[in-house]
Amino acid sequence: MFDDISALSLARFQFAFTVSFHFIFPAFSIGLASYLAVLEGLWLKTGRDVYLQLFKYWLKIFAIAFGMGVVSGIVMAYQFGTNWAAFSDKAGPVIGPLMAYEVLSAFFLESGFLGVMLFGLDRVGKKLHFMATCLVAFGTTVSAFWIIVVNSWMQTPQGYAIAANGQFYATNWLEVIFNPSMPYRLTHTLLGAYLTTALVVGAVGAFHLLKDRKLGRAAQPATKIMFAMAMAMVAVTAPLQVLAGHEHGVNTLAHQPAKIAALEGHYESHDRRAPLILFGVPDDAAQQMHYKVEIPAIGSLILQHDLEASTMGLDKVAPDNRAKVALPFYAFRVMVGLGMLMLLLGAWAAWGAWRGRLFETPLLHRLALAMGPAGFVAVLAGWITTETGRQPFTIFGVLRTAQSASPLDAPAVAASLMAFILVYFFVFGVGSWFILKLMAGEPTPAEQMPDPEQAADVGALPPDSPFGFQLAE
């Protein structure tokens, strides 16, 4: 069955499959941990039980997502020792300490305070519990920092040397950690996590708003707060993400121009006025883009802020150093297209809040519900773009993917791949089903909104808050 498929191809597919499952859970838990910290902080500041009820509602979902993220992450270490032993041997002196820093500074922090966060609300003081929640949120961010450092160093390596035995070792750890692409990649990833969480929370809020409307009953204050906070986050974060993505692209052009050529679909270099290819059908064999729809000169303007700027194509890259164009080309367009829809959702929600109709617009709620999974799809599309665009290297320009794989036969890799597929779809399918079941349930009904003077007494936001956090009727 696998005679015509190489062990390298199977190992790459297995890594992509397991990373895809793993990536979606941290992308959700990073943002959700921060959201929980905000909810608990608002509860302590205002004294309103509605924030505590929302905190408890999302805490159960966070616990499951966090657990599945940890379990799926363990498999990544397993693969480094099986399918990618050559990479582990050569890059281990650099990658190993960075991964150890992630465990020591982040995972221990998260796991150490997670129990207090999950089970200590009625057992420790409010302030101590809030500190535990904040430390878990901080730990998820620190964990993301170290993982992004590792990935960014593989994309834009610096601060290293290669020993006589072929092993990489660090000559300057500050240069390794703060490599050229790390700040851009970290900002883009964290904003993506916050957007992913906001879209999920907004979709759950929209679901309950639509259900209450269908049943002819008034929406619960907790549902309104959930939806309003999520839409506010989308309205603020989506434009920032577009800006961060643009700056990341400019940085990639400076350090990985071959990747930009692939994801932009530029097989040929342009001396001036490079077009922006909106759509096309890549043909690597013929080295051309078929059926392309393009806008003249805009490619130069976006990438180099100059309509007359030249742009390098894949014709300037050695044939054996070129990435296959289709995956980064299409994945990039999925990510950008979803980003535009996120901008639309945020702008529509801001307009609705300004007009006082944030909770009275079913079409907006349906769009928010439909956009619930968009964050997950966008982060996966972004990961596919950056990782397939780096090929055929694991450490860009230095270590090839073919040199990184273990000397295994295809059937051996295929056996573990099939086992992963079966286990993952069962375990994570059940986990995801349970998360959706929890989301379908309503938050516990909240207390009625106090009058404005009482709200002011406990430090609440004014009742005419633009996104209606205080739910003034």
Brief summary of the model shown:
With 473 residues, the chain is mainly alpha-helical.
Ordered list of secondary-structure elements with their pairings:
Elements lengths: L6 H40 L2 H34 L2 H35 L6 H30 L4 E3 L5 E3 L2 H5 L4 H33 L6 H35 L1 H8 L11 E8 L4 E8 L2 H7 L21 H29 L7 H9 L3 H17 L2 E3 L3 E2 L9 H31 L11 H6 L16
Antiparallel strand pairs: 1-2, 3-4, 5-6
Helix pairs in contact: 1-2, 1-4, 1-6, 1-13, 2-3, 2-13, 3-4, 4-6, 6-7, 6-11, 6-12, 7-8, 7-10, 8-10, 8-12, 10-12
Write up this protein:
By secondary structure, this protein is mostly helical. It has 14 helices and six strands. It has one domain. The strands form three sheets. The chain has a two-stranded antiparallel sheet. Helix 3 packs antiparallel against helix 4 and helix 8 packs across helix 10. The C terminus is likely disordered.
List keywords for this structure.
473 residues; mainly alpha; two-stranded antiparallel ribbon; two-stranded antiparallel sheet; 14 helices; 6 strands; 67% helix; 6% strand; disordered C terminus
